[in-house]
Amino acid sequence: MNYQTVVGLEVHVELSTKSKIFCSCTTEFGGEPNTHVCPVCSGMPGVLPVLNKKVVDFAIRAGLATNCEITRYNKFDRKNYFYPDLPKAYQVSQLYLPICRNGKVEIEVEGKKKYIGIHEIHMEEDAGKLVHDPWDDCTLVDYNRCGVPLLEIVSEPDFRSADEVIAYLTKLRETMMYLGVSDCKMQEGSMRADVNISVMPVGSAKFGTRTEMKNMNSFKAIYRAINYEAKRQIEVLENGGRVVQETRRWDDNKDASFAMRSKENAQDYRYFPEPDLLPIEIGDDWIKDTKDNMPELPEAKRKRYMSEFGLSEYDASVITAERQVAYIFEDTAALCGKPKEAANYVMGELMRLMSETGTLAEELEIEPRKIADIIKLVSDGKINRSVAKEVFEAVFKKNVDPEKYIEENNLAMVDDTALVEEVVAKVIADNPKSIDDLKAGKEKAKGFLVGQTMKALKGKANPQTVNKVLNEKLSEVLK
Amino acid sequence: MDFSTKTALELGQMIKNKEVSSVELTKDFLANIKKTDEKINAYITVLEDEALAQAAAVQAKIDSGELTAPLAGVPMAIKDNICTKDILTTCGSKMLYNFKPVYNATVTERLLNNGAVVLGKLNMDEFAMGGSTETSYFGAAHNPFDPERVTGGSSGGSAASIAADECAYSLGSDTGGSIRQPCSFCGVSGIKPTYGAVSRFGLVAFASSLDQIGPVGRDIRDCAEVLSVISGHDPKDSTSVKGKTFDFSQSFTKDLKGVKIGLPTNYFGKGLDEDVKKPVLEAVETLKKLGAQVEEFEMSIVDYAIPTYYVLACAEASSNLSRYDGIKYGYRRKDCEDLLDVYYTSRSEGFGMEVKRRIMLGSFVLSSGYYDAYYNKSLKVRGLIKKSFDQAFNDYDMIISPVAPTVAYKIGENSSDPLKMYLGDIYTVSVNLAGLPGVSVPCGFGKGDMPVGFQLIGPAFSEAKLVKAAYAFQQSTDFHTKKPAIVKEGN
Question: Is A456 helix (H, G, I), strand (E, B) or coil?
């Protein structure tokens, strides 16, 4: 029998607000354990939460970007369960009235477009972290992450392959980063997904029993886990067994998943409205304000780059893959007035240097003004293109000032015809074999002579002048 | 000098007049505590050295003119579920037997800024769950008018400490009557403010949507003064109301002309002891004499108040008390086998019977399959109760009722019958469900010469009107000045 894989995702995105959702502690990642805490986020007796309004702003942004309806009358609810990383023993979340509902996100896999439904997006607080100390055989709690705001983005079970899942996650990550809502650093856990997987016979209308893998924070692992789990479930069914609804743990090293706990006797979270917070009413003004201040999303940028700057679709998507790169491109283009040149430098020199030095987009410090200066220096004939590359590298690595660097290193273009004539004469005199080759019709020899001339002029010559002078001299010699 | 006949405001004035110093007063109250509290057990923690040091510091500020607040330098005490920085805040529970908060409650902070001298932390029912202060891990409090009887609760210590002259005024908290009922039992005055009038930041939560901190004092004027100090918006409490302040300047007259008071007949029917009913109805006559117009009306929805209250209060409590898990602070059973064992044994041993009963009730009504039948339905009834009060206030400025169906009963008499205990809250809980203010003032004595109080309930933020009526009443009666034998013997 042929089977169809069905996947639904719950994606957690940590918001990049400065302070936590209900107190003024920093949300910064890392820090010595329990240094980013206060009585509120560590759940001391008698303390009360005060909502960080920025969290609501970000949630509305995320909702609008994923085509959701925004809930006008919002409430928080308490989700009650005991665990040492949850100091209040309840998580403030939204069950009954989530802030965003009924959205959709378009994805494209192998040229085929498709919408993935967004069931809801709700706001909640993150929990702390348990750290097991194998030396002392004890477990310690770090509350730094407690109260960091999260959005949980719950998709409909609309995925039919691992490729669709990855396309969606890529799109979602890109969108959240562009919105400035989250830095989506997978390795720091600021974007992580719970993956629900089931299989059913092709053509069936009824979903199979699903299993869940929680807290996955690598696209690669998610991809492999989906394929593994679908295969495992199919094998169970083919052997006459039944899939058990359970949470499974994916072990990327062993390339396999393992049963954790059965969901059949699921925990009862005893949700009820959080009495310590007032309902939040979101009026038209708030939504309009958010809409007006929405950053441009990658798709819109791509289209604009193509129509406004005449970039190819490929170039536009390479540049917009990372928000920081797109911003550098846009600023450079605006400053030098040459978008195509800006695109060439960003896609060529900048990306080459990023990969050579292992620099991440969010770590980029290069100033667009300096890239624009280089482009201008080339177009003004102050330096030639090969020198420009050298200057770009110095700007990237040492943040030098382009003009100063050129001056200090004597890199300005040589356009002195007399000097070039002198050098060309010498090169011709020193390379009689090349002249013989040329006489024999071997045109390649000319390139060699150009190279020798450039070399003698330390690469700084104006290539046009070199060509012109060489052609003149050769025509004399070859007559 | 006998300070027991003075109100807190009078004592504050005497300090300003240099008739007495804050330190002398503090010493006097500490001496009273030493003398009587072994019998009364109003205090869980007495801060002898700290209070004396504080009194000296406050006195210096009064002398320098830095502190001019009417109650500056007057010794007071705080219920033990209100956080006091670096000072034990136990909530009357073994669970928090060693808990010292690193922060002050907003009310504590405001009192300290006003020159309050804190004598100690007051006894209470464990986590404010109870109506007798018998469920305290630190032993029952005893009624100063008859130490064999209960003080009422849960703010039993707050009321008994005033009656026994162990402090000049105190803070209590009221979730379902916890200020008003012990005031009635101990013959003192108290205010349960409108929900949102006083910050709950630093009040250890029992039922968040019902809890409210309020003052207890020798008369209603003292209470009004304390309320004006502790009330007002607090950015740390999202449920505290913005832009509302109390103006009591028109409250202290003897004239109640034009005041319309409703008397709900349902509050005076079956279940109300005759010895309580009589003084309350006499109080009605007094109010009439002062010019008030009193009219009977029906308010039957209140019959549903008790079940509604216990469903909602327990539901919230079951969640609020989950944080006491033995992990971060408070009681933890040693030598546990694993995490579950830590939870089970710490909570089983750290909480008392009544608290566990309510956590179980609350967990039950929130569990899936029962949520709609209990919690959700109760929320609806709560709305109806609120509505019927709103309707009543279309016709009346305020409502008068008994505070409790009985006078203070014997210690141990009701503790084996929780249902009977819960029914004792019948006249008070609906006020919390509707978020309204209520005052409780003494109006006579019932069986065994035990004090009886009456309650005035008003619309939200009508405290000034309630205080006005209570003040006029106290100006023409002397029930609030009656001292128990334990105080008289001492002098």
Answer: helix
Supply the DSSP symbol for B167. Answer: -
A/B interface, count of CB pairs below 8 Å: 101
Instruction: Report how far residue A201's alpha carbon sits from residue A208's, in angstroms, rounded to the nearest whole number.
Output: 9
Q: In this predicted model, what pLDDT tens digit does every residue of A289-332 receive, in sequence order? A: 999 999 999 989 999 999 999 999 999 999 998 889 999 999 99
* Rounded Cα–Cα distance for residues A182 and A178 (Å): 9
Interface residues of chain A, partner chain B, Cβ below 8 Å:
39, 42-51, 78, 80, 82, 84, 87-90, 141, 268, 270-272, 275-278
CA–CA min distance B4, chain A (Å):
33
Q: With contact defined as beta carbons under 8 Å apart, do A378 and A388 qualify?
A: yes
Angle between helix A432-439 and helix A463-478 axes, rounded to 10 deg:
70
> Does B155 participate in catalysis according to the annotation?
no
- CATH code for the part of the protein at A417-478: 1.10.10.410
CA distance linking residue B28 with residue A255, whole number of Å: 76
pLDDT at position B491: 47
Tokens of B311: 């469903």
Active site residue B420: no
- Residue B139 contacts A, CB cutoff 8 Å: no
Look at A46 and B83 and tell me if their CB atoms are within 8 Å: yes
Q: Tokens 């928080």 map to which residue?
A: A76
Question: By three-state DSSP, how is residue A38 classified?
Answer: coil
What are the residue ranges spanned by the domains of chain B?
8-252+472-490
Crossing angle of helices B353-366 and B305-320, rounded to 10°:
100
Contacts of A272 in chain B (CB under 8 A): 315-316, 319, 366, 371, 375
Report pLDDT digits (tens) over B229-276.
999 999 999 999 999 999 999 999 999 999 999 999 999 998 999 999
Mention every residue, 6+ apart, whose C-beta is less than 8 A from residue B384: B301, B304
CA distance A70 to chain B (A): 23
Percent of chain A with pLDDT over 90: 73
Cα B64 from Cα B58, distance rounded (Å): 10
Topology of the domain comprising B8-252+472-490? Amidase signature (AS) enzymes (3.90.1300)
| Contact (CB, 8 A) for B118 and B94 | no
Contacts of A25 in chain B (CB under 8 A): none
CB contact under 8 A, A275 and B239: yes
Domain boundaries of chain A, sorted by first residue: 3-284, 296-408, 417-478
- CB contact under 8 Å between A45 and B204, yes or no, is yes
Tokens 């409490």: give the residue: B237
- Nearest Cα of chain A lies from the Cα of B332 at a distance, in angstroms, of 13
User: Rounded distance, CA A276 to CA A88, Å?
Assistant: 13
Flag if B83 and A45 touch (Cβ within 8 Å): yes
Supply the DSSP symbol for A67: T
